[in-house]
Design a protein that fits this description.
4 helices, 24 strands, 4-stranded antiparallel β-sheet, mainly beta
C-alpha cells in the first residue's frame, strides 16, 4: 500500500513521528534510511513539528556506569537504556550540556576526550583537543547559531584562585576547531554550571553580584543583564537557577527556606529589567526543608516545571513534575543519577 502513497505525503506523516519510531523505519529501504538519518531538511522539519513531544531526561544508570537511561516526558513509564558508544575501560563519561538533541560530553580517563553525541540516534563525533590545562571547569554551555548553521561550545577553566580570571575556549562546528578568546572576569557563576540557551546566547547566574551573565554566541562577548528587584530580606541566596519559559528567560528564587518551593519570575521582554514578573510558586517536595540538598529545574513548560530534587539522605535524585497553577507536584521517578534534559532529534555534525 505504501508504494501507492506519494513520498511527499509519507514525509509529512513521518515529520510528526517521534525519533524513536523513525529509527525503526530506517530498515524500510536505503532511501528512507538516508532521509531519516542524513537529510538535514527532514531533520529540521521533524524537530520543529514534533517539538512538543521530544523532551526527554537522561541520567546515569545506577547499575552500570557504562550505561545511561533516558525517559521521554510524554511516556514517563517507559525507560530506555543508552549505551555510550565511545566509553572506554577505566574511564567515566560525563554529560555537560545539550542543544537540539545533541549533548556535549567528556570521557575522563588518563586524559579528557570531548565528544558531541546524539542520544537518540547514537551518532557521535570526537572533538579536537582544545589544549586546556588541567584546571577546574567552572562553567560551560552549548548553543546554535541558525544564520550560519554553527554549533558552538564554551568551556571556562580556572584554578579557582582568588582574583583569577577564567580561561575561555570556544569550539565551532563550522571550523571544527577550538579557539581561546579573551579571559572572563567571571570565574564563579551559578551552582548550575551549564548555561541556559536563549536567543542564541548562553546565560548564567553570577553568584556574588546578583546579575545574569550572558554570552552572545555570534559576537563571542560577555555582557550582564539585571535580575528582578526584590525586597532587601530576599537578597543573598534568593536567586537559584535560570530557565527558558516559552522563549522568555526565567529565574527561580527561594525566599523561604522553611518551604519546599521556589518562586518563578519571567522576563517578558528580553534584556529589559523592568519586564520581570513573578508568575508562580513551584512546590517540589513534602520533605522537611533541611532534608533537601539541591533542586535543579530541567525543563520549564507552559503548565509545569520538571525538576531534579536531591535529598540529603539518599544517594539518588528524584525527578519531579511541579504544576504551576495547581500548586501540586508528582514524582516521575526516583533514586537516579545526575540528570540532564535534552530534546530528541535527528541532527548530527559532519
Amino acid at each position: 500500500m505504501a508504494e501507492h502513497i506519494p513520498e511527499d505525503v509519507i514525509l509529512k506523516i513521518f515529520e510528526r513521528l517521534p525519533v524513536k519510531s523513525l529509527i525503526r523505519f530506517t530498515s524500510l529501504s536505503k532511501r528512507w534510511r538516508f532521509i531519516i538519518l542524513r537529510d538535514p531538511h527532514f531533520a529540521t522539519s521533524q524537530f520543529q513539528i514534533a517539538s512538543d513531544n521530544n523532551k526527554s531526561v537522561c541520567f546515569r544508570s545506577r547499575l552500570d556506569s557504562a550505561f545511561f537511561e533516558s525517559l521521554n516526558l510524554q511516556t514517563p513509564s517507559s525507560l530506555r537504556n543508552l549505551r555510550c558508544p565511545f566509553k572506554q575501560p577505566d574511564s567515566m563519561v560525563f554529560i555537560h550540556s545539550s542543544c537540539r538533541g545533541l549533548v556535549f560530553a567528556t570521557l575522563n580517563g588518563q586524559g579528557i576526550a570531548r565528544y558531541i553525541w546524539n542520544l537518540s540516534t547514537g551518532f557521535f563525533k570526537k572533538l579536537p583537543d582544545p589544549g586546556v590545562k588541567k584546571e577546574f571547569q567552572v562553567f560551560n554551555g552549548f548553543g546554535y547559531i541558525s544564520a550560519t548553521d554553527d554549533y558552538k561550545i564554551l568551556i571556562a577553566n580556572s584554578k579557582l584562585e582568588e582574583g583569577e580570571e577564567a580561561n575561555i575556549h570556544i569550539f565551532s562546528s563550522k571550523s571544527n576547531s577550538w579557539k581561546r578568546i579573551q579571559d572572563s572576569q567571571y570565574s564563579a557563576l551559578s551552582t548550575t554550571i551549564m548555561g541556559t540557551l536563549l536567543d542564541e546566547a548562553l546565560h548564567w547566574l553570577e553568584m556574588f553580584d546578583d546579575v545574569i551573565v550572558a554570552f552572545d554566541l555570534a559576537d563571542e562577548e560577555f555582557r550582564t543583564m539585571p535580575l528582578p528587584v526584590v525586597e532587601d530580606h530576599y537578597a543573598g541566596d534568593y536567586f537559584r537557577h535560570l530557565g527558558d519559559f516559552g522563549g522568555c528567560l526565567c529565574v527561580f528564587g527561594q525566599a523561604d527556606t522553611t518551604a519546599a518551593s521556589m518562586d518563578m519570575w519571567v522576563m517578558r521582554e528580553y534584556d529589559a529589567g523592568n519586564s520581570w514578573t513573578k508568575l508562580f510558586n513551584i512546590k517540589f517536595s513534602n520533605q522537611k526543608p533541611e532534608q533537601i540538598y539541591d533542586v535543579k529545574p530541567i525543563f520549564v513548560m507552559e503548565t509545569s516545571t520538571v525538576l531534579e530534587v536531591q535529598t540529603c539522605f539518599e544517594s539518588g535524585a528524584h525527578l519531579v513534575r511541579s504544576y504551576h497553577k495547581e500548586e501540586k507536584f508528582e514524582e516521575i521517578c526516583m533514586d537516579r543519577g545526575s540528570m540532564i534534559g535534552y530534546e530528541e532529534s535527528l541532527f548530527w555534525l559532519e
